[in-house]
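Encode chain A's predicted structure.
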Amino acid sequence: MKINVELSAPLVPVLCLSRREVRDIIRRILENLDCRESSLNLVITDDSRMQHLNSAFLFCPGPTNVLAFEEESRHESGFLGEVFISAQAVIRESILYSQPIFEHFVRLLAHGIEHLAGFEHGPEMEDRTLHLQRTIKAEEYGL
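Encoded structure for chain A:
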């Protein structure tokens, strides 16, 4: 399992998580999805880059909170693809939804990884995301 975490925006310092801890959260999500042998890239970025990606690939205006780009050969290679998360959106939405930043980060991360694993929006995905959000606790990471 190879997990690459790229930080181009300061979300992880706000969360006080190390790259190792973020990789551990990703590993736990992958195990829950029965994707133990899979790998992926996570890019934590800002609204500006998310706006560009959202416009270029989904033809939607404005930034979004999470985007997932599946690898076409994921079944053969084990590389699922890339998840992009806007640090600004995590912070902004956690305030808007009155949700701790850590919980909202896990929610968005799980959501993106679920898309890479082949899940589509719907009750099953929502239930799985909620389960992951409830089982990965901030206290386990000293928060």
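Residues 119 and 125 are 6 Å apart (CA to CA).
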